[in-house]
Amino acid sequence: MKISVLGCGRWGSFIGWYHATVLKNDVVLYGEEGREAYDILKRDGKNEYVALDKSITLTSDLEYALKASDVIIISISSQALREFMQKVIKYPVADKYFVLCMKGIEESTGKRLSEVLTDSGIKSDKIAVWVGPGHIQAFVAGVPNCMIIDSANGELKKYLAENFKSNLIRFYYGDDLLGTEVGAAAKNVLGIAAGVLDGCGYTSLKGPLMARGAFEVAKLIKAMGGNPMSAYGLAHLGDYETTLFSPYSHNRTYGEMMARGERFGKLAEGVMTAKAMKELGDKYGIELPITNAVYEGCFLADEFGKGEHDINHIILKLFDRSIKNEFRF
């Protein structure tokens, strides 16, 4: 296959590595000139995660990257997707297939990332999402995992899963695009909450966090019109180990450092996703206590002070909630 990957950060560079090294596909990897991620790869041929195979064409020419392949994989910051797509649609891309290997909900609109693409003029049957558990550090060390590909186009998701599979990644077909996207985005919010628990010394609460967090997300998915069971699949609950427990998780590390009054310098998608989910909860009338606690910690912590004290306050507020049945949709 000929594959173009747009975005050469952590996941983009891995996807290029995976397709070139494992699947032996022809790969064009695009990044913006002047961006640190691209400049490092151009200078060194590697970053802290992968070394690029010599067969990969690294380019800052977006038009070339789009023309080179029929399958376009996008892996950039979720909140930058709409603006980036305005650059993409300047070129003839109506016959291209777009695969979103990224997780998030657009904060300004509450829309899923596939909806951002359709808003940009890409037809829904040309869009797929690739999500699920796995850390780059484990993959490049040869540790396998399972992931999911979902799309409104049944033939497309089957085609991609069959052609992207290997002994390193086993794929499943998703059958609920809304639930897959919301679940994948929401697990980053739960990752921040897990990090806060670690930073506050409440690690034993990560079990209840997993149970109540998945149930909370399931309620939101149902209210939005999706299948609540999607919250218990690979896109969400299946990704908890790599997000709530792993030292490689950006979102868990963000929460842990926040609880210690420290700043995490890398991208943590769960921050803006927490804001977007809070607004969705308000819109659909769904209680999202864990999401709201993460939102308060990320955006309103100054109301309670600084450092560990305010995070403790926010987390312990969850225990003041009234007693109710465990399962009530």
Which helices and strands appear, and what pairs or packs with what?
Blueprint: E1 2-6, H1 10-22, E2 26-30, H2 36-44, E3 57-59, H3 62-68, E4 71-74, H4 81-88, E5 97-100, H5 113-119, E6 127-131, H6 136-140, E7 145-151, H7 154-164, E8 169-173, H8 177-200, H9 206-224, H10 240-245, H11 250-259, H12 270-284, H13 289-299, H14 308-317
Parallel strand pairs: 1-2, 1-4, 2-3, 4-5, 5-6, 7-8
Antiparallel strand pairs: 6-7
Description:
By secondary structure, the chain is an alpha/beta fold. 47% of the residues lie in helices and 12% in strands. It has an 8-stranded mixed beta sheet, with helices on both faces. Helix 4 links the parallel strand 4 and strand 5. Helix 8 crosses helix 14 and helix 12 (270-284) crosses helix 13 (289-299). The longest helix has 24 residues, at 177-200. The relative contact order is 0.10. The mean pLDDT is 92.
Oligomer: single chain
List SSEs in N-to-C order: EHEHEHEHEHEHEHEHHHHHHH
Alpha carbon gyration radius: 19 Å
Report the β-strand fraction as a percent range.
5-15%
What is the strand tally? 8
Helix content: 40-55%
Largest sheet: 8 strands, mixed
Mean pLDDT: 92
Structural class: alpha/beta
Backbone shape: globular
In whole angstroms, the N-to-C terminal distance is 44 Å
Uncertain stretches = none
Number of helices: 14
Q: Biggest sheet: strands side by side, in what order?
A: 3-2-1-4-5-6-7-8
